[in-house]
Amino acid sequence: MQDLWTKVDNYFGDLLTPADEKLDAALLANEQAGLPAIDITRLQGKFLEFLVCISGARRVLEIGTLGGYSTIWLARALPEGGRIVSLELDPHHAEVARANLRNVGVLDRVELIVGPALDTLPLLEKTAAPFDLIFIDADKQSYPQYLHWALKLSRPGTVIVADNVVREGKVVEPDCDDPNVQGVQRFTELLAAEPRLSATVLQTVGTKGYDGFALAVVLS
Ligand code: SAH
Ligand code: DHB
Ligand code: MG
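# magnesium ion complex -> structure
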């Protein structure tokens, strides 16, 4: 199936996300710097752009920057004056991201904070919150805590998006010993149990295989 998913992803990607030298350059820079190719796909980038656009988000929080590919999509979708805070553990990833964001011309809209997100999230409570849209895409083991922080840093109407909640379907394995899968399972249980959230999951296939996004909105 992977071949077909790739073909279809390229079919729609070629039509709906026109060739973009700066985005391609960012992916090339990531590769040359040895970063893992675990960024979202271009159609998924377009999906994040769509969410920023329909939600009217002006303040965005991203947890897990990597080389800034998703950050670029989010930043470009912002209205004038919009801002993104993006949290990244690895200083090397952050350095590559900074160069990519500068090259694309959106660095002035992005605040990159380096360190373990669980240490840096509390700093945002007084300074940058509430956020209008929060994209969770860092280590999967910490997704439950990231959801906790997302709620703390939100307001009614905030959109919360989490990448990689399907993990090639491993999420349905009850005794899975992979801590990433366990993190995503616990995250989904918390989503389900949280009365302040209304949530769904969108399974995805494409050039990056089989995975999915959790999508939630803060009700109160
Ligand atoms: N959002 C990116 C991909 C992120 S990959 C994109 O789609 O382009 C996940 C990133 O989370 C990696 O760069 C990894 O270094 C970072 N990460 C892992 N653990 C983290 C932590 N505890 N705090 C912050 N970032 C973390
Ligand atoms: C991994 C992380 C991601 O954010 C992703 O989109 C795909 C894979 C990983 O850590 O394996
Ligand atoms: Mg991801």
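# post-check
The longest helix spans residues 2-16.
The chain is about 45% helix and 20% strand.
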